Amino acid sequence: MSARRVVLVDDHELFRAGVRAELGGRCEILGEAGDVDEAVELICDRQPDVVLLDVHLPSGSGEAVIAAVHERAPQVRFLALSVSDAPEDVIGIIRSGARGYVTKTIAPGELADALERIAEGDAVFSPRLAGFVLDAFSAGSGGVALASGDPELDQLTVREREVLRLIARGYTYKELARELTISVKTVETHVSSVLRKLQLSNRHQLTRWATERRLS
Amino acid sequence: MPRRSVALRRSAEDRLLGGVAGGVSARIGVEVTVLRIGLVLFGLVSSGLVFAGYVLAWLLVAREGEDEPIAKRAIGDRRGIMVGVALIPALIVALVVAAVLGAGWLGSGAWALFVAVAGLVLVYRNAAEDERAAMRRVAEPLWRLSSNRKGSWFVFTRRVVAGAALMLIGLAFLLSGHRANLVRAFLGVVMIIAGLVVVFGPWWLSVGHELVDERQARARAEERADLAARVHDSVLQTLALIQRRADQPQQVIQLARAQERELRAVLFSDPGADAARDESFAAALRRIQQEVEAAHGVPIEVVAVGDVPLDGPFAERLTALLAAGREATVNAAKWSGAPVISLFGEAEPECASLFVRDRGGGFDLAQVADDRKGLSESVRGRMSRCGGTAEIRTALGEGTEVRLSVRLDEDHRRRDGPVSAPRTAP
């Protein structure tokens, strides 16, 4: 399998250098960008498999990059990366189309794994994101009931909740598969399904949930 | 002369023009609005002499926080003084006209106008930049008022015509008939005031708005500066500490984490990071994170789902759960050797659970000696006493997970589905 072709978008030079060094052996870094316009041009020009995207950029947000690229190169996938744990940032970038979210404290090996997963079309949830999703999709415990009229989209299945719980508890996909005695591929399917629900269910209420959660 | 102890200063905070009224008010303790109204009324009666005095005070009294008055700088401002001198011919013409007509009020008015205009020129040329900006802001609406921008010109003329008409009628009321007729005189005064309001009202309003905006902007700027000072100070301190302990990675991590938490608390106003910290389950988890990280230097990833207040009907059980969870976290930080520990807590309507997981060395559960009180007493004992459960999963080389949970309902029959099933809103 050839190395994944990756573009880095982050306004911190130092952080990009660190990631470049980490990923050097496992991914092919096509280029780097530090702001929205630069990033959109670079991504559309080089057509990478995955873009590692900072949520906050000086000239705008990561969401703006995703939106602009999506029109011109819809097949490019995004993994969001941030220091921020604020729910509205996390939920916002996922809903704009990123297939995963990790924090900048992620261990080097795990970042390469995550990029690999995204490139293959799967989703990557940090423990924190898994916690947010559990919270947002539960009617009790202060979460908002998500009513888009489509019950398929508004609820998580029991299995999906189990998977998310284990992710939130710090399990890797492999450990999780062993714990639930299912295959890693099945775990990936569940997570992708949760991602779909997160992106498609009633937007207004999810956003409101994120804001309320931040303010509470 | 101002007393030496509290010298008269123009107010920087409470000002409409130069802050003279604000300064005087602060000095003699008279309400500033009363002072301003008195100033304007007295200025009208004295045919402008008070206004000239105001401008002189603006020139001669130093502003709060400044050492010297504007006049000190104005002395060296030759071009400004030339402008003032250039106005003298106009003054002479006005004085001659006044003498010919025998109108004394015109003469004194011309003097006052001369002093005020020349003084304002000097003030504007020599004041500090922010004071000049404030002057420009006050003058700008007046400028706009008379500038013939498309559309506004017509509105402006109409307003001036209407205002002038009102004032003329008012004057006619005042001057015609007997002075003794109080109603007429009163009506006249009211109409003149109404005319003034019609012409100048919009300008007064916009000046008022700009002043409020300016005050708010200043407050915001101060807040930002305060935040920046706080953040920079603490970040710089941490960076200095990190440099000094560069040879002790564990301590460096510890410092970095502590700084990270502090910054998050300031920037994202992380709930639970501030004073009311132990009121809820989720906040208590963050507190465990902070304390264990601070004491043992191992980063703890906390994820909290749902939340319940700690002072509810199951306070004892939740407290026991949290205490056991803290013990398990401390154990993991001390013994596991894992670089990071996951702490996951979930509060559901029927139960609350905690999971402490590390990918460290693990241990052989059967060989834990009885004197290792931590595990058996603090964790298992606590949980069984409050009717909860504790399960420990570990194996050498595979890390450890401690799973704790307590029920948050008395009546088990109320449960009509598995705990983990999603619940829909009514």
Helix content of chain A: 40-55%
Average pLDDT for all residues of chain A:
83
The percent range for helix content of chain B is 55-70%
CATH superfamily of the domain at 271-409 in chain B: Histidine kinase-like ATPase, C-terminal domain
CATH class of the domain at 271-409 in chain B: Alpha Beta
How does the overall form of chain A come out from the CA principal axes? globular
Instruction: Please tell me the overall pLDDT of chain B.
Output: 77
Return the CATH class of the largest domain in chain A. Answer: Alpha Beta
Subunit arrangement of the protein: heterodimer
Which strand order do you get reading across the main beta sheet of chain B?
Answer: 1-2-3-5-4
Described by strand count, sense and barrel closure, the largest sheet of chain B is: 5 strands, mixed
Number of strands of chain B: 5
Termini Cα gap of chain B: 77 Å
Whole-angstrom Rg of chain A: 17 Å
Tally of individual helices of chain B: 14
Strand percentage of chain B: 5-15%
Largest sheet of chain A: 6 strands, parallel
N/C terminus separation of chain A: 47 Å
Provide tags for this entry.
heterodimer; A: 216 residues; alpha/beta; Rossmann fold; Arc Repressor Mutant, subunit A; 8 strands; B: alpha+beta; Heat Shock Protein 90; 14 helices; 61% helix; disordered N terminus; disordered C terminus
What does this structure look like?
The complex is a heterodimer of chains A (216) and B (426). Chain A is an alpha/beta fold and 216 residues long. Chain A has 2 domains: 121 residues, Response regulator (Rossmann fold); 92 residues, Arc Repressor Mutant, subunit A (Orthogonal Bundle), CATH 1.10.10. Chain A is 54% helix and 16% strand. In chain A, the strands form 2 sheets. Chain A has a 6-stranded parallel beta sheet with strand order 2-1-3-6-7-8, sandwiched between helices. A two-stranded antiparallel sheet of chain A has the order 4-5. In chain A, helix 4 packs antiparallel against helix 11, helix 8 packs across helix 10 and helix 9 crosses helix 10. Chain B is an alpha+beta fold and 426 residues long. Among the domains of chain B are: 127 residues, no CATH class; 139 residues, Heat Shock Protein 90 (2-Layer Sandwich). Chain B has a 5-stranded mixed beta sheet with strand order 1-2-3-5-4. In chain B, helix 6 runs antiparallel to helix 7 and helix 13 packs antiparallel against helix 14. The radius of gyration of chain B is 38 Å and the shape is elongated. At the A-B interface, helix 6 and helix 8 of A face strand 1 and strand 2 of B.
